Amino acid sequence: MADFSPERVGIVTESTGNEVLRIEHLHKEFEGNVILKDLNLTVRKGEVIVVIGPSGCGKSTLLRCVNALEDIQGGQILLDGRPVHSGAKDITLMRQKIGMVFQSYDLFPHKTIIQNVTLAPCKVQKRPRAEAEQEALELLERVGLADRRDDYPRQLSGGQKQRVAIVRALCMHPEILLLDEITAALDPEMVHEVLDVVLSLARSGSTMLIVTHEMAFARAIADRVLFIDEGEIVEESTDPKEFFTKPETPRAQAFLKTFDYE
Amino acid sequence: MQSLGIDVLFKGTNFLRLLEGLWVAVRISLISVAISIVLGILVGILMTSRNMAVKAIFRVYLEIVRIMPQMVLLFIVYFGTTRVFGWDLEAETAAIIVFVFWGTAEMGDLVRGALISIPKIQYESAAALGMSRGMAFRYVILPQTIRRLIPLSINLITRMIKTTSLVMMIGIVEVLKVGQQIIEANRKVSPNAAFGVFAVIFLMYFLICWPVSRLAVWLEKKWA
Ligand SMILES: Nc1ncnc2c1ncn2[C@@H]1O[C@H](COP(=O)(O)OP(=O)(O)OP(=O)(O)O)[C@@H](O)[C@H]1O
Ligand SMILES: [Mg+2]
Questions:
Q1: Which of A108, A237, B136, B189 is the most exposed place for a label (fewest CB within 10 A)?
Q2: Would an 8 Å CB–CB cutoff place A173 in contact with chain B?
Q3: In sequence order, what are the beta bridge partners of A101?
Q4: Which of B72, B71, B78 is nearest to B94 (CA)?
Q5: Span B147-172, pLDDT tens digits
Q6: Is the domain covering B6-222 a CATH 3.40.109.10 domain?
C-alpha cells in the first residue's frame, strides 16, 4: 500500500511532549442517564488505540465527546493541553486538529469527490485551491480513487465512499483521527480495502482512536486496547495478542466469546 | 363540416385582448410567487424552530390555507373585508393578497420539509471538519436544501398560475373572462366559438405551465 508517512499525509504534532489527547474524569449523561463515568485516557503521538465493547456501552459517545459533538457534564478533554469544549470560542480551530470518520461516511452529496475533500481546507483553513487540490489528488491517488475525482458520492461504492471520507479528514492535517466503526455499514468484500488504508496510516505513524467490531483488525492494529462496558474502561491492555487470547476480566471474556463461532 | 369557432379570434382585436388577459393572469401569479418565495423561506425557517408556540401558530395557519377553497379566500378579502373595514381594495391587489397568503404557507411548508430532510449527520460532518455553523449552513445545508426545494416550488408555481383563473370571480378581466366576453359577443354569428376560444386558452395555459413543469422534472433528475 501507499506511503502514508506523517510528512506525506500531513499529520502534524506540536512539540508539547508526545501527549496528544488527554481525557480526565469524563462524565457524560443523556437526560439523566449516565453514559460515561469518570473516564480517563491519555493518547500519545503515534499511538493507535482501539476501543471495543458491547453495543450501547458508549463508544460512539466517547468519540463524539472528544471533538465536542456532544457536550459533557463533567471532567475535561485536552488536546495539546488545550481544552476542547463545545461552547468554546476556538472550537472550530480545535476540531480541525481532530479528524473524524463516521460509520455512514456522510460525504456531501451535492459535491464531487474532489470538492468534498477540498471544501474544508479551502474554506476553513483558507488554503489556496490549487495547493489543496494537489494534496487531495495525491491522497486520493494513494487510496486508489484519483480517477474518481469528478464523480459524485452516489456513483461510488460504500467502500470507496469511506476511503474518500478518510482522505477528507486527512486533508485537514489532523493530529488525531477518530474512526467510529467505519466498516460497520459496508458489505463484507469492501471491508478490507478500507481497513488496509487504516493499517497503512497506522504504520506511517498516525495517531488514532478507533472504535471497531472487527476483532482481527483490532488485534492487528492496536498499540493499546480498551474494553469498555457500561460507560467504564473495564480492561486496558498494551498487549493486544494477550488481550484477545486471554482477557483478564470476566466481562471482557464474555464479550469476546460472542465473536467465537466454534 | 362544422366550424371549430377559431375564426372569432381573428376578428378585430380579439386575439390581442386574449393575450392581454393572459398577461393579467401571469402578472398576478408572478408577483404572488415572488413575494411568496421570500416570505415562504422566512416562514419555513421559523417553522423549524423548537418554540412550541411558533410551531403551533404556523401549523394552524397552514391548515387554514389548506382547507379553505381559494375562491372563498378571494371573496372574504375582496367582498368581506372591504365591507367590514370600509377600505378600498383593488381586485388585483386582493387577488395578490390571497395568493401570497396561500403561497407563503405552502412555500413555508416546502422549505421546512427540505430543511428537516437534511440528515443531522451532515451538520456533524461539517462541524467535525472545523466549519462554523454559518459555514456549514452556507456550503453544506443550504445548497442541499435548495436542490430539494426547486422542483417542489416549481410545482407550486404552476398550481398558482392555474389557480389565477379564479380571479375573474372578483371581477378581474383575465384571459378566461376575455374568452367568455368574446364568446358572448359572437354567439349569433359563430355559435361554436366556445370550443375554439377555450381550446386556445387551454393551449396558452399549456404553453406557460408545460416548460415550467418540464424544468422541474429536469432539475429533479439532475439533482437526484
Ligand atoms: N442523543 C442521544 N440521546 C439519548 N441517548 C443517547 C443518545 N446517543 C446515545 N445515547 C445512548 O447512549 C448510550 C451509548 O450510545 P453509543 O452510541 O455511544 O453506544 P456504542 O457503544 O457506540 O454502541 P454501538 O456499538 O451500537 O455503536 C446508549 O444507551 C444510547 O442509547
Ligand atoms: Mg456506536
A1: B189
A2: no
A3: A179
A4: B78
A5: 888 888 888 888 888 888 888 887 78
A6: no
